[in-house]
Amino acid sequence: MHDNLSKQVIVYDYNNDSDFIIGLNSVSDNDEIILAMLNPKQTLLETIEAAEGIIKNGKRCKLGSETHSKFPVLILKVSILILI
Q1: CB within 8 A of 2, min separation 6: which ones?
Q2: Distance of alpha carbon 53 from alpha carbon 36, whole angstroms
Q3: Given a cut of 80, is residue 47 above it in pLDDT?
Q4: Cα–Cα distance between 5 and 71 in angstroms, integer?
């Protein structure tokens, strides 16, 4: 299970269980899934920009065999209906 998880998760930044940014690989090359938990800034835009800065300047890594983090199982299904 760990090998499968390590191929799906990129750790952009991890300080503790309530201060981290991780990326999840998608089946589509056009999608980017980022899960971030960090101290909120004054606005949502400032919080997103802070996360983007950490991702850009951080040292990303894959999960290693010594990693003992717990990640919830997420099943996301998004349907989009476009009316023309």
Answers
A1: 63, 65
A2: 12
A3: yes
A4: 9
